[in-house]
């Protein structure tokens, strides 16, 4: 998993907006983001783009844990509850995998385990491996 740790540290965008990797294993990842002022939209709730980015990061980590470079083919998100403060967590779980395609379900929760958003992602698995 050292390759995944290095992979996660190279995500400059995630680092810039305060996303941190909590854990990763084959087909699984958990990330967190402490809500700061930069994450808030005009009505003082977390911007959908910030929530999407957290879920997308967990998806990317989980999809790449098998060692092959994996990129998003299709994703969708449902925003279920507004939040303005605290910490958000995104947990990605692999649903299915084959040599070319893998699918993942990601749940975004706050620190009280309230469901904030659900995200579903499909990844294309390249032959090239992470280095």
Write a compact overview of the structure shown.
Helices cover 23% and strands 47% of the residues. It is built from three helices and six strands, in the order ααββαββββ.
Short descriptors:
Thiol Ester Dehydrase, Chain A; 23% helix; alpha+beta; 131 residues
Notes on the structure:
By secondary structure, the protein is an alpha+beta fold. It has a single domain (2-129), classed as Roll (Thiol Ester Dehydrase, Chain A), CATH 3.10.129.10. Helix content is 23%, strand content 47%. It has three helices and six strands, in the order ααββαββββ. A six-stranded antiparallel sheet has the order 1-2-4-5-6-3. The protein is globular and about 45 Å long. The model has no long low-confidence stretch (mean pLDDT 97).
């Amino acid at each position: 998993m050292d390759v995944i740790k290095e992979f996660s540290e190279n995500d400059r965008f995630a680092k810039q907006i305060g996303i941190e990797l909590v854990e990763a294993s084959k087909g699984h990842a958990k990330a967190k983001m402490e809500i700061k002022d930069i994450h808030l939209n005009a009505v003082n709730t977390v911007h959908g783009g910030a929530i999407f980015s957290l879920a997308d990061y967990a998806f990317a980590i989980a999809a790449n844990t098998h060692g092959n470079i994996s990129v998003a083919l299709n994703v969708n998100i449902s925003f279920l509850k507004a939040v303005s403060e605290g910490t958000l967590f995104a947990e990605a779980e692999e649903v299915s995998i084959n040599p070319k395609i893998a699918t993942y379900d990601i749940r975004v929760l706050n620190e009280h385990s309230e469901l904030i958003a659900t995200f579903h992602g499909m990844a294309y698995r390249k032959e090239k491996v992470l280095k």
